[in-house]
Structures
1.
Amino acid sequence: MAGLLSISEPTADSDSSTRLEALNNTKVLNTISGSYSREQIAQLFDLPLMDLLLQAQTIHRQHFNANEVQISTLLSIKTGNCPEDCGYCSQSGHHRDKTQLQAEKRLDVDKVIAAAKRAKASGSSRFCMGAAWKHPSRKDMPYVVELVKEVKALGLETCMTLGMLDDEQAEQLAKAGLDYYNHNLDTSRRYYEQVVSTRSYDERLDTLTRVRNSGINVCSGNIVGMGESRDDRIDWVHELLKMPKAPESIPVNLLVPIKGTPLGDKVLAEGQLPVLEWIRTIAVTRICCPTSYVRLSAGRESLSDAEQALAFMAGANSFFYGDKLLTTGNASQSNDDRLMRELGITAQLAQPRAPQHLPVIDAMSGEQSQVLVAD
């Protein structure tokens, strides 16, 4: 790790020399603790892009196979009419008059399993299931628990995004063997009120704490390009580092502006975030969260081959297969396969958590039964 924060030699430019001197002064702290202050995160964002990418790729290679990516498939198991008012989302019931998205009921279990089988056959190692709920109801839990068990039985890793969870729900999902739970912070605490009002920032953090305490891996990321500033992106990275442990999976999305949503209309009118700023955010995330999977998520379908290669150089090592995410488009699988061949990238094999069956003997009857306990 030594020296990673001083890649370029000082030049006659006083600003450059000052920046490099400041980075050198923080080098020892970061090497020892692995933690970055908000000021240090800001300094990383300010690095020349090539220096930043080199540092991100160097750190990436210390923790992962440099030419291997984790591939997921995402399926909407309940679409539309969500009670949340997220300003970027076509599934919000608050925007349905403008987006004209047709709500759908829960998918039948057999349809979900059929989709999971197709995902496995295509090469995905993780199957992610998303429902447009503020939180799952009590009557929904047997359904989602069954999905987790059935998908895991196929040998796939499982991930769900169902909104907020209480302690009991998190424990139920953990006992079913759920591998990852996705609950994005979306943006900084400061900018959050510009994104959603029906769920607080602290409520999001509370759900992530419940997920972590239950033993499920945390998947939590952001959406860049919603009109936020670089300061907000810095604050979001810093928020990840304030957690007891950084999320094991971090999606870094670029807003796909959907006409009829407040933030989509804003971006369509004002212009989208430059792709290089998105890639810069991925690189800083990789440096600050060196052991996390960093996912190149929504917005990827708009990238050229060269831009995707830069994103992988920046430390992204996970992405979604399939022509569709929840409701937005995605890069085609055939194009992904072609690009992976050209870049020499291979797909990582599934590594699902194995639930344990422990024998329990009834003290009164002496009868033995099995209790499922997740790792």
2.
Amino acid sequence: MKAPNERSLDEMRAHLIDKAADDETFRGQLLSDPRTSIEGELGITIPEGLAVQVHENSAEEVHLVLPPAMKLSEAELSRAAGGATSGWCCY
């Protein structure tokens, strides 16, 4: 397995999904305590203030995850104009 800083977000997501498909105990932990489960499995620290939610699709319910809106709010525009970063954009 690659070191945490060598894996892309897609690689980390795929690893978590694969493990949850194969390991019912991990799946339950991921649903009940996503932050701790993800940090432990991937060897990373999730920044404070970043909420993590895990949803499970079923025959009766399907979840669609949208990426963040790319339109900046007035506050974000003001920070960008001043040279500050919003923290939501990755390189």
3.
Amino acid sequence: MKLFRSRAEKELDGIISELKQYLANNYKDQAHLMRKKLHERAEALHAEGKLSDELFERYERLYESFTEEMKNYNHREFYSS
């Protein structure tokens, strides 16, 4: 963990923190919204030049790992029985 992080990194890390909290509390809809927000903000910050290519790739990998983890994360799994 870096000692000095940019505002962009702090913002994205805050989104990740919220996302993890929603996952832990089983708030499926909110978790999906935060995952989408992570991706959109990372792209926007990168386009604005506030996020380096290296950091952008790091956050995109995190987004992809959350996407894979949440692949079947929905309410339907509880209603199918």
